[in-house]
């Protein structure tokens, strides 16, 4: 076994049944990427793996909904998610697939090894829900019902996505099949159960004390409290055997006689995907001269395993998977599982089904012309990471963080340094001149160049402590503190003023030299968080691309006074790192943000209308109240889509005695061309309301048919239903 420490970093395998959204990115993938990039920057031996989870009921449910095969579904969403990860700079060493033959063999071999070890499984018959219409046993995700914990009516058979409670199908109130919509019946079937209960005692010691078999494996003080808290609750309640197989035709076949029609349950095969991904990476990168043994990263004495997940996966990664690894007998256990809480969107939980979502690939497409869009998003998400409590992504905060911090602090400092260097020294790093300059502390005396750079080095030490404690929000703030130090140096020494009076002033040369060294340091410390900005900054400063061990070398240079850019080093011409959103001259970026907010507001309004169906009838109004409403029949004579909105049409309605302009949210149901000539009923005496800059002079009455499509309330419909509009 290789004696060099191996860092194995995993991020939760996402289901390939849909596109990933920003909540997923903030929950696991962005934190994992920061950590992996930082360790590489320290010259560590790192393997960062992930991949698509392509088995289980969630895949087959999506396939049935879209009228496609499971293979077509996983191919589609694997491609979408893999590309969006790449485009956002998530630096996986291997993004694998659980449908790959290598994974199937790895999972089956793992299962058979547990069978060989004996006393890890038990076969037993149990009652399981069965859909009589489809003649199929129902996996947990094929069953929905009312959660017994919170009352949510759309809870799945394995988990309530509203309160996060882990469930079994038998616990659901009023269960029903997602396939037929009918109440399933119970039938007997045989399955293999993993004896999780036999691992309870050592798991408790390992989690609470960090020890196993008398050996100290980790320090519990380094683990997040909510992670240990959730595990403690499970352990206190007592662990039970867990079914490891399911009656499905999509998945990894159980490699035993008498197991026809059985597949390995997705919770068992998915985490093994980390191992198969590592195998694939080792196979792809091995050479005759430099062979790679995947076991060094999973079974070696110097292997360190870290799982990045969301809080809904804590139990699987802290209890179930460690029990599986221990039962196998020769794998390391995770050193840490820094699970995040959930990220919300504008105060509400992300919901794909309700459209309350910003998908990764959707953001990249809609922001394709936004300068440095990748790091703009990464920064906003890092600043709101749900590390210890739920976070909230808001577009107004996105703008504030971008303009007030990325632009006004980091971008402003770099632009001033590069521009002034070209103005005063033809783009060359000046020599340090004997003398003092003003430091960061207004109450202190002038200080030496080395003193200032040593303070930057100490900030880098602070940054390292935060990252290794998985406190990425504090870490990114430290990066901004370093940029602020540079801005303060420039502001206190004002080289632009001294240059006019005395171009040879040592304060000008020294303050510019210090600022350039800070800029070079920023090109290193931004790399784990803002990789596109770091790359751009390295190019701007004519520095070599980062290759490893750069973090320690940079800090050492700053501590010892060795320049990161020596005297005479030539930098490139100024180029903006970020473009302000609230820009008076160019409003395109602000308009883009406003469109996002409008789309969310439209979703809120639609949800409010949908929810009214279940709301109690409002207070009784009198006949006199009703007669205040002026309903007029008119004809749509012109229509066009409202720019920058997917859901609005601008209508011109002829009432016979006048024409009205009305903005209506029907563009998802009708094209502009097909509504021209349509008779409509208009609420004519509503106060005008400005929508997307257009004065809307009334409201067109619409109804919803049995399929959820909006239809016009017009005289023909009214008459056919025995109603006359007057």
Quick recap:
The protein is an alpha+beta fold. It is built from 21 helices and 28 strands.
Describe the model:
- This protein is an alpha+beta fold and 726 residues long.
- The relative contact order is 0.09.
- Helix 2 crosses helix 3, helix 10 crosses helix 11 and helix 14 runs antiparallel to helix 15.
- The strands form 9 sheets. It has a 5-stranded parallel beta sheet, with helices on both faces. Strands 22-21-20-23-26 form a 5-stranded antiparallel beta sheet.
- 41% of the residues lie in helices and 17% in strands.
- It starts with 5 loop residues before the first strand and ends in a 6-residue tail after the last helix.
CATH superfamily of the domain at 407-560: Isoleucyl-tRNA Synthetase, Domain 1
The mean pLDDT is: 91
The CATH topology of the domain at 407-560 turns out to be Isoleucyl-tRNA Synthetase, Domain 1
For the sheet with most strands, the description reads: 5 strands, parallel
Shape: flat
Termini separation comes to 87 Å
Kindly name the structural category.
Answer: alpha+beta
Low-pLDDT segments:
717-726
CATH architecture of the domain at 407-560: Orthogonal Bundle
Could you give the count of β-strands?
Answer: 28
**How is the largest sheet built, in terms of strand order?**
3-2-1-15-16
Number of helices: 21
Task: Tell me roughly what share of residues is in helical segments.
Answer: 40-55%
Rg calc: 31 Å
Which CATH C-level class of the domain at 407-560 is it?
Mainly Alpha
Share of β-strand residues: 15-25%
């Amino acid at each position: 076994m290789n004696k060099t420490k191996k860092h194995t970093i995993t991020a939760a395998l996402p289901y390939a049944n849909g596109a990933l959204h920003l909540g997923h990115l903030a929950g696991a993938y962005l934190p994992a990427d920061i950590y992996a990039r930082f360790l590489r920057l320290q010259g560590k031996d790192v393997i960062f793996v992930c991949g698509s989870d392509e088995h289980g009921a969630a895949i087959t449910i999506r396939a049935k909904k879209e009228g496609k095969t499971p293979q077509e579904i996983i191919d589609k969403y694997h491609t979408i998610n893999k590309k969006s990860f790449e485009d956002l700079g998530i630096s996986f060493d291997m993004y694998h697939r659980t449908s790959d033959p290598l994974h199937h063999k790895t999972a089956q071999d793992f299962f058979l090894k547990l069978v060989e070890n004996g006393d890890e499984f038990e076969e037993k018959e149990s009652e399981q829900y069965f859909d009589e219409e489809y003649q199929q046993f129902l996996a947990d995700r094929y069953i929905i019902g009312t959660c017994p914990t919170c009352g949510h009516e759309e809870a799945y058979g394995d988990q309530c996505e509203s309160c996060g409670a882990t469930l079994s199908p038998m616990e659901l109130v009023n269960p029903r099949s997602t396939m037929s919509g009918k109440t399933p019946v119970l039938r007997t079937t045989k399955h293999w159960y993993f004896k999780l209960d036999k691992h309870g005692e050592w798991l408790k010691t390992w989690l609470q004390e960090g020890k196993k078999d008398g050996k100290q494996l980790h320090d519990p003080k380094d683990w997040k409290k909510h992670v240990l808290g959730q595990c403690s609750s499970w352990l206190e309640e007592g662990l039970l055997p867990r079914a490891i197989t399911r009656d499905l035709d999509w998945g990894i076949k159980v490699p035993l006689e008498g197991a026809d029609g059985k597949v390995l349950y997705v919770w068992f095969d998915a985490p093994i995907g980390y191992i198969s991904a590592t195998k694939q990476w080792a196979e792809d990168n091995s050479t005759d001269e430099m062979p790679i043994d995947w076991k060094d990263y999973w079974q070696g004495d110097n292997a360190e395993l870290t799982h990045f997940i969301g809080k809904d996966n804590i139990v699987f990664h802290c209890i179930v998977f460690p029990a599986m690894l221990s039962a196998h007998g020769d794998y390391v256990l995770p050193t840490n599982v820094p699970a995040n809480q959930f990220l919300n969107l504008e105060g509400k939980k992300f919901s794909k089904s309700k459209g309350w979502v910003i998908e990764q690939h959707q953001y990249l497409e809609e922001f394709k012309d936004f300068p440095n869009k990748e790091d703009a998003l990464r920064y906003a998400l890092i600043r709101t990471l749900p590390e210890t409590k739920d976070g909230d992504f808001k577009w107004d905060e996105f703008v504030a963080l971008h303009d007030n911090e990325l632009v006004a602090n980091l971008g402003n400092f770099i632009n001033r340094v590069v521009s002034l260097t070209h103005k005063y020294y033809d783009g060359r790093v000046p020599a340090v001149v004997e003398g003092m300059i003003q430091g960061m502390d207004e109450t202190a005396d002038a200080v030496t160049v080395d003193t200032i750079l040593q303070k930057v080095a100490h900030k880098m030490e602070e940054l390292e402590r935060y990252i290794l404690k998985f406190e990425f929000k504090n870490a990114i703030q430290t990066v901004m503190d370093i940029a602020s130090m540079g801005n303060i140096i420039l502001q206190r020494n004002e080289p632009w003023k001294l240059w006019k009076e005395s171009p040879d002033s040592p304060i000008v040369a020294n303050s510019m030299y210090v600022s350039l060294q800070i800029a070079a340091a920023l090109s290193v410390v931004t790399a784990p968080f803002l990789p596109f900005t770091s790359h751009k900054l390295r190019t701007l400063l004519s520095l070599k691309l980062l290759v490893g061990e750069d973090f320690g070398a940079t800090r050492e240079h700053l501590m010892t006074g060795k320049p990161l850019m020596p005297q005479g080093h030539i930098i490139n011409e100024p180029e903006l790192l970020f473009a302000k959103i609230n820009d008076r001259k160019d409003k395109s970026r602000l308009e883009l943000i406003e469109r996002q907010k409008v789309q969310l507001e439209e979703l809120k309004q639609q949800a409010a209308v949908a929810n009214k169906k279940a709301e109690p009838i409002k207070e009784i109004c009198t006949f006199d109240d009703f007669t205040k409403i002026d309903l007029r029949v008119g004809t749509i004579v012109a229509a066009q889509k409202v720019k920058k909105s997917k859901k609005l049409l601008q209508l011109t309605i002829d009432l016979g005695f006048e024409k009205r302009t009305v903005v209506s949210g029907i563009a998802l149901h009708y094209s502009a061309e097909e509504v021209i000539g349509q008779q409509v009923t208009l609420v004519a005496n509503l106060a005008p309301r400005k929508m997307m800059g257009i004065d809307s002079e009334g409201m067109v009455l619409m109804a919803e048919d049995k399929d959820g499509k909006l239809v016009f309330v017009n005289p023909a419909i009214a008459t056919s239903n025995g109603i006359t509009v007057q």
